[in-house]
Amino acid sequence: MARTVTLIPGDGIGPEISDATVRILAATGADLVWDRQLGGMAAVTAAGNPMPDETLASIGRTGLALKGPLETPVGGGYRSVNVALRKEFDLYANVRPACTIVPGGRFENVDIVLIRENTQGLYSGIEHYIKIGADDRAAAESVALITRDGSERVIRYAFEYAITRGRKKLTLVHKANILKYSQGLFLEVGKELAREYEGRVQFEERIVDAMAMHLVLRPEQFDMIVTTNLFGDILSDEIAGLIGGLGLAPGANIGRRAMIFEAVHGTAPDIAGQGVANPGALILAACMMLHELGDRNGAQRVRQALIDTIRSQGVLTRDMGGTATTEEFTDAVIERLG
Ligand code: NAD
Asked: Whose Cα sits closest to atom 7 in ligand 1?
């Protein structure tokens, strides 16, 4: 039976890489129906709202979305739609796999899945200014909220992910030496769960600053990482850098009611509309989606065709050192699907 997926092409290069991804999935024969919806600046222009009710209703119905990058104004303007979507659908786990695909980079054998708590910590949105004397904004306070339940569900998700994907080791990253309450609670829950999963998944803990260093020294030693929101945001980009940048970094936002799959990179305004963007990250996000839908074979076929296209070095987009357009690269992937 056909599965309906909400498609939010997004801003900047979003429509270009979304078209490429939809073409590739169609070529696999995946039985998907796309419910196209607006989000971000495209939605502001068309409907005066970066996250229209129709888009939210669509995700509510389908429980599944593939999303291009959305523009977030810096400083003023509307709040991040990505953050709002995570809140609206309680998408508590952000899954970011990073695997060496382009050979000849700094590291040949990186294969790390980072799972980031996606709704709490410093991204809880609990912020205010403090007035001192005549200055209304003399200080600012952001609350890093961590709950036992919130920690448990994301760490348990990471353990379960490890088991179902045959992963061996989970590294919990924290700063409990300084933030003894919030980070301490996250670590405490992690240690409790580690006892439950003992013998099935190896568990270790690392302090975030040391982890940042170990990742650039010897990333091959890490398998899966689970961490709080801000640390996960930063470390996942660092890990993307280890495999050659954001062009090939997919992400999934997982909740109980909905899942949203996306490219980790932004709207790339500097190359938008030129037809030269690398659609790889969104294609890999679509593979994660196929996997979640139970189409492991389809996911693997697309992934392998993408890897083969890149490794053959013949048809590469500019960011990977080639001259191919998005369309030429997409055609090459489709050709390799067989
Ligand atoms: P960016 O990721 O858009 O661009 C950084 C650099 O990487 C640019 O030089 C860009 O050309 C290049 N790049 C990114 N993706 C590429 C691709 N697929 N192919 C080739 N080159 C690529 O980051 P930014 O410039 O900091 O952000 C631009 C906008 O995107 C901002 O409005 C930001 O808020 C938004 N953003 C959205 C998301 C999201 O929706 N998930 C994520 C990050 C940033």
From this structure: 268
CA of 238 to the centre of ligand 1 (A): 15
Q: Three-state DSSP class for 18?
A: helix
Which residue, by CA, sits nearest to atom 37 of ligand 1?
A: 266
**52 is written with which tokens?**
């229209």
Structure confidence at residue 75 (pLDDT): 62
d(CA 172, CA 117) in angstroms, rounded, equals 11
Judge whether 115 and 224 are in contact, CB under 8 Å: yes
Residue linked to tokens 């998005």 = 326
The DSSP letter of residue 4 is E
CA distances from 99 to 123, 170, 239 (A): 27, 16, 9
Q: How far apart are the first and last CA of the chain?
A: 23
Q: Which residues are catalytic?
A: 123, 175, 209, 233
Closest-lying ligand 1 atom to the alpha carbon of residue 72: 34
Phi, psi of 134 (to 5 degrees): -90, -5
Strand 32-36, strand 127-132: pairing:
unpaired
Protein residue whose Cα sits closest to atom 31 of ligand 1: 71
Q: Which residue has the tokens 């083969």?
A: 308
* pTM score, whole prediction: 0.93
Six-digit token string for 237: 């980009």
Beta strands in 118-211 (DSSP E): 127-132, 135-142, 169-174, 202-207
Give one word for 244, left, alpha or beta, with left for phi > 0 and alpha for psi -120 to 50.
left
The whole-angstrom separation of Cα 207 and Cα 225 is 12
- 218 in helix, strand or coil? coil
Q: Is the minimum distance from the CB of 271 to ligand 1 under 6 angstroms?
A: yes
Spatial distance between the Cα atoms of 28 and 26, rounded to a whole number of angstroms: 5
91-147 per-position pLDDT tens digit: 999 999 999 987 777 888 999 999 999 999 998 889 999 999 999 999 999 999 999
Give 56-116 as a DSSP string: HHHHHHHSEEEE------SSSSSPPHHHHHHHHTT--EEEEEEE--STTSS-S--EEEEEE
